[in-house]
Write a structure and sequence with these properties.
about 90 residues; alpha+beta
Length: about 90
């Protein structure tokens, strides 16, 4: 409900449009740039199995693009999201 003066013009109602589809992307970087960009297909969600597949792809990308990186150590910064904390992911 809108309060207005009786002589004010009628309020316009705008058509509602669907918003753009959301895209989930996981990006792995180092000091030289992007190592891997993983875009989740529409309709899929991240679970432990999907996240482990992404980590396997990261391992292959690092071997191919930055071979010395695995010897010098890799640090992944995770939050407490369920796929990050799953037993399979930690293994």
């Amino acid at each position: 409900m809108t309060w207005k003066h009786p002589s004010s013009p009628a309020t316009k109602k705008f058509k509602v449009q669907q918003s753009a589809t959301k895209v989930m992307a996981t990006v792995f970087l180092d000091s030289r740039g992007m190592i891997l960009l993983d875009i989740l297909p529409k309709g899929e969600s991240v679970n432990a199995d999907r996240y482990c597949e992404t980590l396997d792809r990261l391992r292959l990308a690092v071997r191919r693009k930055r071979p010395g990186l695995l010897r010098s150590g890799v640090v992944l910064q995770h939050d407490n999201a369920t796929p990050h904390m799953a037993k399979r992911t930690k293994e």
